[in-house]
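QUALITY CONTROL LOG
STEP: pairwise intake check
CHECKER ROLE: data steward
CRITERIA: each record must contain a sequence immediately followed by its structure tokens, with no blank fields

ENTRY 1 OF 2
RESULT FIELD BELOW
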Amino acid sequence: MSTVDVADTGSAPGVGAGSTDAPPPPEQTAESALARTLQRIARGDLLVVVMSFVFAFLIGSVLIVIADQEVRETLGYFFARPSDALTAIWQSVTQAYGAMFRGAVFDGTGYARAAESVREAGGTGTYVLVPALSAGLRPLTETLTIATPLIIASAGMAVSFRAGLFNIGGTGQLIVGAMAAGYVGFTLDLPVVLHLLVCLVAGILAGGVWGGIAGFLKARFGANEVISTIMLNWIATYLLFYALKTSAFTGANQSQPTSPSIGENAALPLLLGSGFRLHAGLFLAAGAAAVLWWLMSRSTIGFHFRAVGSNPRAAQVAGISPARTAFLVLAVAGALVGAAGAVHVLGTEHRLTEGVAGNIGFDAITVALLGRSGPLGIVLAGLLFAGLSTGGRFMESSQGVPLDLVQVIQVLVVLFIAAPPLVRTLIGLRRIDHPGAAARVRRARRARTGAAQTTAPTTAAQAAATAPSAARPAEQDEPAPGTAQGAAGAHTAGSPAGPDAAEPPGGPDPAAPEPAAGTAGEPGPAPSDERPGDRTDAQEEEER
């Protein structure tokens, strides 16, 4: 560049005082934003949940195929006609899961059948649509009915889980709440709204007291809440068995272990008429999810719950009593689960039986874990489990698939969701859980490569210096040190005046001391490949 060019630009090339790095091109920015978005999706819980269901249903498909007799018969001659086996496998899986959808969400066959029957009777327009929709959406109403107490109980479980306490007493708290609500429902005679409210309050208080017992044992004596709540489950179960054999709970019908039906004023109103079981407890389930959100996210007591669950020692230093918090946590959790028992009796069962609790208490634990103890997750997980239950029964009745397979699918879903690294490994995103591992491996590999390149010249020089004498034929003719020729050669090589000055006239002085090897003017012994302590083959043979 000429002087004029430098003067015009005001700086030398590459040394501009005001020079700045150019912004990345729009394509690179868009790619980085897309990569960050994909990474957030890969790290999130949604991908894990979705893929957990995919893997669970894939394994369930294998079990359905194994359980199908027709598929097993076609597999017997698979190599002769493989198309028969593949067709049978496809039909078995699709029909089974199709039946599950029909029994859980929408019955298309029932919709078409109802519409056709109304048209044959001369109906048109809404006279066809309403009965057809009623038949088609009946499975969905059953799913919502089963999900209602499950969501409420799961909200109570989520309170204890987020506070660091593993509450296993859902079954006992639900039984006690159902007993209290049912007893008030069939013994008292109160006005419509008041009777229903008193029954609900009785169930909530009973569940809170039952959960508070475990909380008191935890706070006062340090008892493990897992053991105490499990034992309270059995106490509540056998207490119900005993109560149903007394006159206070059985009334005039003492031949069967069931209680009288609750009064009409105590029952939860039906939302879609007498033809459906869906009741107003659905709004209470939505309210339980809202209470969970407000309690754990907006209230002071919920902050105390989360603080103790995150770090009890730090919470105690901050002035929060872990013992008092443990009691309150289990009492609140028990109250919500007791409300679920009350809703179940007042809305669906309408009387007490020995199996009134069913699997709701233990399913609530699974739903709370599946929903990450959050309100929205609990609602979705509760609907999912209820759909699997109703759809599984229809699948068993229509396709002959065992209902136990549905429970296997539920267990697999929970198993995969409980192990996110396993799911990410199965879909090829193992490095998401260890984001710096790949970079550390690359840095270590580069360091090893650089060290090898640095030591390579030194190693080559040492190998050349310590090479055997056979590799240097010019050095084989040199006499060994210590011999006469070697000494003469040494003096000749070390003498600056040549061979005539190497030795005084008359020969070497016998009284003169012999110079040590390796001193100035004389080389030391020839380098050897042997290290101190090494032995030659000849020495080893002599020892043998």
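ENTRY 2 OF 2
RESULT FIELD BELOW
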Amino acid sequence: MPLSPHPFSTNPLKTRADLHNALESFLNPLAPHTSPNGARIKIGSTATHYDETAAQLEGFARPLWGLASLLAGGGKYEGTERWVHGLAAGTDPESNEYWGETRARDQRMVEMSPIGFSLAVAPGAMWEPLGTREKENVVKWLNAINDKEMPNTNWLWFRVFANLGLSKVGAPFDPERLKADLDHLDTFYLGDGWSRDGPEGVRQLDYYSGSFAIQYAQLVYSKLAADTDPARSEEYRDRARKYAADFVHMFDEEGRAIPFGRSTTYRMAMAAFWGAVAFADVELPAPLSWGVIKGILLRNLRWWSRQDIFSSDGTLSIGYCYPNMYFTENYNSPGSPYWGMKAFIPLALSESHPFWKAEELPYPSSQLPKTVALHHPSHIISHLGGHTFLLSSGQACHYPLKATQAKYGKFAYSSAFGFSVPTGSFGLDQHAADSMIAFSEDEGETWKTRRLAPGARIESIDGEPVLISKWFPWPDVEVETWLIPPVESVSENWHLRVHKLKNPNRKLMSVEGAFAIYGQTSKDGRTLDTFDGDEGRFTKLGEAFAVSSAGAVGILDMSPGDQRKGVVMNVDANANLIAARTVLPQLEAINLPKEGETWLVSAVFALPVTSGETSVKGTWEERWEKKPAVPEWISKLMKQ
């Protein structure tokens, strides 16, 4: 007997009432997992680098991003008392559900942020019901963050929110620490709305720079501190206006965000920035009207409602489009995905707010450039060819987290095809090198892919943006790469990758991958076989291609030397964020020249199935034939 659908999957997600119901559908399944006094929520048994008590605190605290927003907007939730009782028990040293003392760099610091937010926006529900001793315990527990060492990253915002929450309920807090943290966080600012997630020398400008942490926090602060810190609040609002003009390009017409970087298991938090814009009453420049902002956020939520994101008990799973542990970070507990509740902040707004009164409008494709260079994050974003994707070079996390080379080092990331992470270290199917070039010097036993390219830059060549980088698979082997976006009305489904390999004396193999794609047939769900006119795979010298119900992807060798072999590989299951079973068109070179320079030129094709379509039959053939030309300036470089 089939399981009943999760209420979120049948929610139209059009109105404020719909969003309220959606939030309840996330909160209700947590009740059976909640401890007797409410302080701990244990959803699963997978581990993190921090202790189990902190993990269960995470399960308690993160849903507060949504619940507190609902309460701030005058909404009611029958289970609110679970969190009120939990706050009292978790901060009580004599309770068997006490969360424990905070140490340096403690995960407890992270979860103080939603608690501080709750006190600030919903004191009537979360603070006033507490008794005198309970309030004293909460104040002491939160204030413990003020004399502890913290990571020099967006974490500093968590201490800001702990102090801000205390200040809003008239409790003792540390105003000097609050100001010092804000002053230091402002040193992360790069300009044009962008902040890096860390000090100078760190080039990490992923969703933490926006929806996950920094921009979101700045906007909430600008609303809550408008009277006490007006100059800084207005500065944060101005940053949001500038940032929005770039960030809008991370979304597509169907509501999807481009998955990129770490913590993508936070899912709908990718779009939370747009809700924070509304919360802070920030009017954005055209074409980002209230109706457009509303559409971006609600379409994103509706897209998530169609994905397999819940466990059988109705709680959020760790994963992206389906449960998946391969791509997770060592700080992702079963409660971590509830950071996505940040997207529910419009519930803090009344029905009369312009966000809710506005008619939902489509993504403003006709009013945005089809190709745009974003210099701060070192991205070139394309809206051509039926999907939104970015070309990337130069970013890296401030520490080498799991699969960091896949999360930041790939050449391309797509809203339609996502990206893949390694599932193991033996065999190319486990390396899952989509949108990467991989090198081996031991006949394929191990492979090197790009992680760091610190000198990456965007240049305008013949009026078009080109992303240029250098990286070193080995200290004596240099790879210089040019990434060239599609050309409108010429070869819209193709982007070019050009690599100049300098190899002093190593026997090297290389493999370069296109986008990975869902790899099962519509007919019987079996793995794609030889192309039959509708679906399947085909290869020949210099070409590899695959077409399925998800669309079509391929790669074409345009190198000046010997052509590489085209293959379509079955990727190890669960490597890709979007599709659990994928295939990957690749170009293989078994024996690269051992000395001197070698040029490798690849044209990468992608055509996804869009909403309302069931296949790309009758479309992909024509677009495949509109192959790109190698730019003249590249040809000149190769002849030098």
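INTAKE CHECK: passed for both entries
DESCRIPTIVE NOTE, ENTRY 2: The chain has two domains: 10-366, 369-639.
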